[in-house]
Specification:
The chain is α/β, with parallel strands linked by helices. The chain contains 10 helices and 10 strands. It starts with 7 loop residues before the first helix and ends with a helix.
């Protein structure tokens, strides 16, 4: 950890000790803070009556963060706020990107620009509050915030640990995500909501889905499912799942499996726990709407 070679995002899966997660984040953040090329020009609050809030993400596309945030963008009080979406997604824009662009006041594509260029553009727009929705995830660009693009910089939703950096002032959370006793392990000040998890009740959802037979599911019995990446399954969680299958006759568990080795390993672990391997069923990666359609059988 001290070498700064362990990604904080990886550490979230390795250890649930907040002091270890903070240490990993602090060492990782040094590579961005060291290269901080902060523009000399002081940041000015926008002169207009409305507060300008800018959301920054590499995931304004078909992605869970975009899906969860859609209604948040739409429901900002436009009498008090102007909403900007700064997209540095490396992938092509899709229908989700276009939907976000339609519900914010300003869509700003900064794909391919340097952190300094983005900071200059953001400062030119006099953004008051910058919200990082990516953090240390795959397409995150923490170097943007090391350049201090707004007076207040906030981390929310996409990355749920501390950024370990002086460049992020606040983390939006709830008391389950960050208990009051654990605030000492966060570089940020915590803004507590009753619950931090945003969602979108207007997202399209398939009215029908495949039948059980098509998915290889039994005709009867409870179907449990988790379509998270399998690296998130640790021994303690899997043991709990096996206990549930043991307690509920004829139930099955449906999981995501990117390749056959994952399925083989998990089935063997089930057998070791005394559960028939056939009670674990696997689905390959699918389009988002196809995942939702499967819930008609779950």
């Amino acid at each position: 950890i001290a070498s700064g070679r362990i990604s904080p995002f990886t550490m979230l899966s390795i250890s649930d000790r907040p002091e270890i997660q903070q240490l990993a984040a602090q060492h990782w953040a040094k590579q961005y803070d060291k290269k901080n090329t902060t523009i000399e020009k002081p940041i000015q609050l926008s002169k207009k009556n409305k507060i300008k809030i800018g959301y920054f993400s590499g995931d304004f596309r078909s992605h869970p963060v975009a899906a969860l945030m859609m209604q948040v963008f739409a429901q900002h009080n436009r009498e008090k706020l102007l909403v900007y979406a700064f997209s540095y997604c490396l992938l092509e824009e899709d229908a989700v990107s276009h939907r976000i662009a339609s519900v914010v006041d300003h869509w700003v594509n900064v794909r391919g620009k340097t952190a300094k260029e983005i900071a200059e553009e953001t400062r030119g727009l006099a953004i008051d509050i910058a919200v990082d929705l990516s953090g240390y995830t795959e397409f995150g660009r923490p170097e943007i915030f090391a350049n201090r693009v707004a007076l207040s910089q906030v981390s929310y939703l996409g990355y749920l640990g501390t950024m370990g950096s002086p460049s992020i002032d606040y983390l939006i959370a709830d008391q389950i995500l960050v208990t009051p006793a654990d605030t000492q392990f966060y570089n940020e000040k915590i803004i507590y909501l009753p619950w931090y998890q945003a969602n979108d009740q207007d997202r399209p959802c398939p009215a029908t889905g495949p039948d059980r037979n098509t998915l290889g599911l039994p005709e009867q019995g409870v179907v449990y499912a988790s379509f998270n990446h399998t690296y998130k399954i640790n021994p303690e969680v899997f043991s709990c799942w096996m206990e549930i299958l043991r307690a509920v006759p004829d139930s099955v568990l449906m999981l995501l499996a990117a390749h056959d080795r994952v399925a083989a390993n998990l089935r063997q672990t089930a057998v070791n726990a005394g559960i028939d391997a056939q009670r674990l069923l696997f689905t390959p990666r699918k389009k988002y709407e196809d995942y939702l359609a499967q819930y008609h059988c779950i």
